[in-house]
Design a protein that fits this description.
VOC family protein, 2,3-Dihydroxybiphenyl 1,2-Dioxygenase, domain 1, globular, single chain, 2 domains, 4-stranded mixed beta sheet, 5-stranded mixed beta sheet, Glyas_Fos-R_dOase_dom, Glyas_Bleomycin-R_OHBP_Dase, Fosfomycin_Res_Enzymes, Signal recognition particle alu RNA binding heterodimer, srp9/1, 39% strand, 17% helix, alpha+beta
Length: 128
């Protein structure tokens, strides 16, 4: 069984689309009036960006404590590369620079109130 998609609620759909397209390797399939967008990764995984406006709310959505999504990278160099690119984006908050976390190497950042992890896949034999 493969994961089909995940639905993320955001206040600013266009900023989220830019983040996922420019820095995390997703391709835009459709953007419906900046209220909802569907994106796809190279691994046949869809990301639905759902605007909070469709929930009839204006505020930035809240996620449960420790909820986050994570993206694996091949090695530490790839983690640093993404970190350096993301640092140039306004409105992102970082917990720290990339470092050893648990049994891998990576970092966390926040888009709106959503935590995102970028790390080296600790389950691959060829991890550097």
């Amino acid at each position: 069984m493969n994961l089909n998609h995940i639905n993320l609620i955001v206040k600013d759909v266009d900023k989220a689309v830019n983040l996922f397209a420019q820095h995390l390797g997703f391709h835009l399939i459709v953007n419906r009036n900046s209220k909802m967008a569907v994106m796809e990764s190279n691994h046949n995984f869809a990301l639905v960006i759902w605007g909070q406006v469709l929930n009839h709310k204006e505020n930035t959505p809240e996620y449960p404590e420790n909820f986050h999504i994570g993206f694996y990278q091949q090695n530490e160099e790839a983690v640093w590369e993404i970190y350096e690119k993301l640092k140039t984006e306004a409105d992102l908050k970082f917990e720290s620079e990339p470092k050893n976390i648990r049994n891998t190497f990576g970092f966390y950042f926040f888009f709106e109130n959503m935590m995102i992890e970028i790390s080296v896949d600790p389950f691959k034999d060829d991890v550097a």
